[in-house]
Amino acid sequence: MAIKIYIDQGHNPRSPNTGAEGNGYAEQDITYEVGRSLATLLRNNGNFEVRVSRPTPETQLGTSNASSLRARVDDANSWGADYFISIHTNASSSSSASGSEALVYTTPSTSANLGEDILIGLNEATGLPNRGIKVRPGLYVLRKTTMPAVLIEIGFISNPYDANLMANNPQLFARGIYNGILDFFDL
Known about the structure:
Elements: E1 3-9, E2 21-22, E3 25-26, H1 27-43, E4 48-52, H2 65-79, E5 83-90, E6 100-104, H3 110-126, E7 130-135, H4 140-143, E8 149-156, H5 160-168, H6 170-184
Parallel strand pairs: 1-4, 1-5, 5-8, 6-7
Antiparallel strand pairs: 2-3, 6-8
């Protein structure tokens, strides 16, 4: 039976719930492309069934930040996803902050194990630093999902190098996440 993975491409193309901006790029554009590439990789592997939160670049979820987050979680929960992966870009007041991190509801957990494998995959694929697992029980998409959930901050949009790599090589990030998923499932 196929493993059902819900890919949440963080943020909306326009308000409400747009993402961070930096170095001429918008988070919601990067997360859309990385999620689309990841979905293709997973669909081409017979072990997975995939659903994305934003099937098109113009898909707008909700009419407020809260309803946008709720729409993603409700979609994953009602579909019966086995795992929830939310893709985001990080931002910092320091342009030197770089790398990927995984946010989870609690540790130790299945989510944290998946996050660790994804971070290793991202580091190997992109060369960006692995900033580790962070516990964030307050995040709606981690708190309200009924399956293991990981929010991946793939890189810093505020860092010129990270931002250019994410915007110009989304398939590299998708491949890193995909390789981490394969490691997690021993596939």
